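Suppose a colleague, Dr. K., hands you the sequence of a protein chain of 530 amino acids and asks what its three-dimensional shape might be. Before reaching for any lab equipment, you can write down a predicted structure in C-alpha cell form. Begin with the sequence itself:
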Amino acid sequence: MGYVNRLSVIGMRISLPVVARLGAARVALSCLTALVAGAISIGARSAAAQRPPNIVYIMADDLGWAELGSYGQTKIHTPNLDQLARDGLRFTRFYSGSPVCAPSRAALLTGLHTGHAPVRGNFELGGYLDSEERGQYPLPAGTPTIATMLKARGYATAIVGKWGLGGPGSEGVPNQHGFDFFYGYLDQKQAHNHYPTHLWRNTQWDTLPNTYFSSHPAAESIPADARAFTQYQGTAYAPDVMTTESLRFIRQQRAKPFFLYLAFTLPHLALQVPDEELAAYDFPETTYRARQGYLPHARPRAAYAGMISRMDAHVGQVMALLRELKLDSTTLVVFTSDNGTTYTGGVEPGFFESVANLRGLKDAVYEGGLRVPFIARWPGHIAPGRVTDALAANWDVLPTLAALTHARVRGAIDGVSFAPTLLGRGVQPAHPPMYWEHHDVCAGQQAVRDGRWKAVRLGVAASRPAPVQLFDLDADPGERVDVAAQHPDVLARLERLMTTMRTPARIPEWNFVVNPARQVNYSTCAPGNR
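The predicted structure, expressed as C-alpha cells, is then:
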C-alpha cells in the first residue's frame, strides 16, 4: 500500500560492417571515446553514491505518543504516517527535549539538553496582537545548530513552520542560524491561530488573505450560537500554505543535498481545521466554549482528530513528491513531535488515549509529557517494518545526522549518535543519563533517566519541594509506583545527577531560585500528575 495523497551506464555496440568502413584509427578513437564516456558515467554513479542523503525532518506540535495508528491509536486516521512506520523504523522510547515547545526545539537544533541549552523555557516577549509580536527568548548569535553543521557540509537548508526561538528583528531569527530559507511563524504565540493575518518569509512579513481576530477571546465574547463560530475561520489555512512552501523548496533544491525542517503547527491549539476534515469523524460531542482561553469549537473531538489527519495528508504530499522527483531512495524522512499531548483548550487526551498508559501530559516531566513518536525511513539503509526500544532523545539527532552525512560537529554537545540503531549495523552504546528541567509549572521540575531508573522532582524552587520520586520504568512504564524507599542508593545517585547535569542559565527564572513564599499543590500542578 502506498502513501495516500489527498544514472544509466553508457554502452556501445560496433558492428563488423561499421568496423570495415572505419579505419583502424577511427575505430581506436571511437573505442577511446566510449571508454571515456563509460568512465564519466561510472564516476557520476560513484559521486551519486557518495552524495549524502537529503533530510526531511518533520516535527508535529503537541502530538501525543499514542496518537498515530502505528502507536496504537484507533480513533484518528493517520494512513500516511502508518505507512511511513511500515516502511521504516519506529522507536518506542524516544524523548523530546522538553515538555513544552521552545526548549524542546532548542535541544533538537543544538544537541544540548535543557541543563545546558541556551533556551530552557517558553520565555515570552510581547503579546498576542500583531502589533505586539516579539517572539520568545532568542537563540544567541553564533550558537552552532544542525542547520549550520549541514550548511557547512554543502546542504541547502530550510525551516518551514513554527520557529519559537527568536522574534522579528532579533538575533534568533532562523536566517541567522544556518537556514537559507524560512517560511512560517517566528512567534509561537501567533501560531495559536491557524488562520493568521501573516506569516514570515525569511525576515519579511508575508500577508495572507485572512481577517484578523483574537486567538484568545474573552469568554463573554464567545457567541451563544455555535454556528457563529465560523468567524474563527479564514481563507488561507496556514498548515496548507506552509506545506506548499515545503514542496516548492524540495523541487527547487532537488539537484543538491537539502535539509528541510518541517515544523508543523498541528495539532497545537487552537482547534481549527477546514470543515471537510470533520466529515470523517462522528464522535459524541459537547461544544467547547473557550473556558481556558483558546478559540471555541462546536465539534472539538472531530476538530482535534481532523487536525492530525490534515497533517497526515500533508506528509503524504511530501512523500508523493519525493517519489515523483525520484528522490525517495536518497532521502531520510523523520517524523516526531516536540512534546506530549496538551490538556487544555478543548483537547480530550483521555477520550483519544493520547499517551496510552503513560503518566502526565504536556508541561509535565513524566513520561506522557516527554515520550514522543519517532519514525525514520530511508530505503536501502533503514530496513522496513522494524521497531526498537533503544533509548534516544531529540538532542541526539544532531550527532546522528553528523554521522550519516559525515558532517563536522562544532562545540560541545550532550547528544550521542543513534545511527547504529537506524542502520541496523555496528554497536549502539548504552545511552548516558538523560536530563530534563522545566520551569513553567510546579515551581520548577527536574527529571533524570538512567537506564531503567527515572527520578522526578517537583517544586524545585518552592518553599517546600516535593520528595523526589523514583520509578523503575522497565517494570512500571506508567510511573505509578514510587520505589524511592526501596532503592535509596539509586535515588541518591540520580539526585546528584540533577545537580551535576546542569549549568547556570542566562535567564534568572531558569536557575531554580527558591522562593520561600511559593506554595504548590503537588497533586494538581503537573498535568496528568495523578
